[in-house]
Design a protein that fits this description.
single chain; 363 residues; alpha/beta; 8-stranded parallel beta barrel; two-stranded antiparallel ribbon; 12 helices; 16% strand; globular
């Protein structure tokens, strides 16, 4: 089992960008010293801070627009922690450049790098880069094809819809052979069987889906995995909001405002994006928006969160691990970005010192 943290690298209202970087490095140091297995960096663009009372704000403000550079810095300041991207938005990147940079980070880390990939469920970043979101799926598939060709051949050629290369040699080649572990974000119903058919390990989450939805989609994934003739049943990491307090009451109270604000904003985003250009499965998006708009904090704690005392969080994550047959948990500690820094560090400490050791004993 893998136990780590996912980092959105929050840029808090009223603080500086320097503060945001130092807070991120502080979480890395806590993960390293606390014995966690890894940290996973999001990729966020155009996420400047706004007044937290502004209902039309920009979601969770963040400074993590260049996660591979950040990953290299983290690899250089740590000795054993794995560093991953969760996820690199491939259609926004040039595939050969990405192959070179990922391989470089893999060497800097001496093989402690994990490559998570996806295409993002929302169009805002694409608009900022001037790339049509309706091209995102095709671009994603072609980018991944090029990256893998660059890593598994001394020289390669490619003729595709968006890219063409002739007899190209990419250096460096990855430290890990044949390449760093690749994991794809599975966020929509159609993604699960498609990734299973390709033999791809996946990230899943409890933001857009609740626990029953996720359980059903993982059954579809594993059935498709077996039908495709792959060994095993696929490797699944769960990204889940986690907040650990000394007591249930403390944890619930400290995280409630930030969490509810995040899910309300997510409901609006799903609803607005359902009819957007290039957004497939629009009915699925609209339904998610409707369900999240009506969700209560109690609903979230039951089906989407792991909040509470160390004992409560251990029980919650143990049940999820066993029920969903997970390969690991990556904890998102500050959903909504409003929990004060000192409380987040205390939550990470309790997670590392009390929750994870207990889970290692029973899972």
């Amino acid at each position: 089992m893998h136990y780590g943290l996912v980092m959105e690298c929050d840029y808090r209202y009223g603080t500086t960008q320097e503060d945001a970087f130092q807070e991120a490095f502080g979480l890395v140091d806590a993960a390293e010293s606390g014995g966690l297995d890894g940290v996973w960096l999001a990729e966020r663009h155009f996420a400047a801070p706004r007044n937290p009372l502004d209902a039309a704000g920009a979601g969770i403000p963040s400074i993590i627009s260049a996660p591979l550079i950040m990953a290299s810095a983290i690899a250089a300041r740590t000795e054993r922690l794995r560093v991953g991207i969760a996820v690199s938005v491939l259609p926004l990147n040039h595939p050969v450049r990405m192959a070179e940079e990922v391989a470089t980070v893999d060497h800097v880390s001496r093989g402690r790098f994990d490559f998570g990939v996806g295409r993002s469920g929302f169009a805002r970043s694409y608009e900022g880069y001037g790339i049509p979101y309706e091209e995102s799926r095709e671009r994603f598939e072609e980018c991944l094809e090029v990256i893998l060709a660059a890593w598994t051949n001394e020289r390669f050629s490619h003729q595709g819809k968006f890219y063409a290369f002739d007899n190209v040699a990419v250096l460096p080649q990855p430290y890990q052979k044949p390449h760093p572990p690749i994991r794809v974000a599975a966020t929509t119903k159609d993604t699960f069987p498609r990734m299973a058919g390709q033999g791809r390990n996946i990230f899943v989450g409890l933001r857009g889906m609740d626990r029953p939805d996720l359980a059903w989609n993982l059954k579809v994934y594993r059935d498709a995995w077996q039908e495709a003739g792959h060994d095993g049943e696929g490797d699944v990491l769960l990204r889940i909001p986690v907040y650990v307090g000394k007591t249930d009451e403390e944890a619930f109270a400290l995280a409630e405002e930030s969490t509810m604000r995040s899910y309300r904003r997510m409901a609006e985003t799903f609803a607005k994006s359902a009819a957007g250009a290039g957004t497939t499965v629009s009915e699925e998006r609209a339904e998610r928006g409707r369900r999240l708009a009506a969700v209560t904090y109690e609903d979230l704690r039951r089906d989407r969160l792991a909040y509470g005392s160390p004992e409560t969080v251990v029980e919650r994550l143990r049940d999820l691990t066993q029920d969903l047959h997970l390969s690991g948990i990556i904890a998102e500690m500050n959903v909504g970005g409003l929990v004060p820094r000192e409380h987040i560090l205390e939550s990470v400490r309790l997670y590392a010192d009390e929750v994870v050791p207990a889970l290692r004993d029973i899972c």
